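Table S4 entry, 3-beta hydroxysteroid dehydrogenase/isomerase domain-containing protein.
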Amino acid sequence: MDGGWVYLVTGGCGFVGERIVELLCQQDYIREVRVFDSVAREEVEKLSTGKKRAPTSL
């Protein structure tokens, strides 16, 4: 595996979808969470892009 899992959450702007995205972002083994929703809402602006966590140095 190349650095972790990537998840696509459909309906990510809905009540359940938002909570699923929040929970997925807390997991260490997940590299990226992508959100797709047909309804654009202001809450989408709260989502960040880029690396989930900064790499730690050895």
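The beta strands are 5-10, 30-36.
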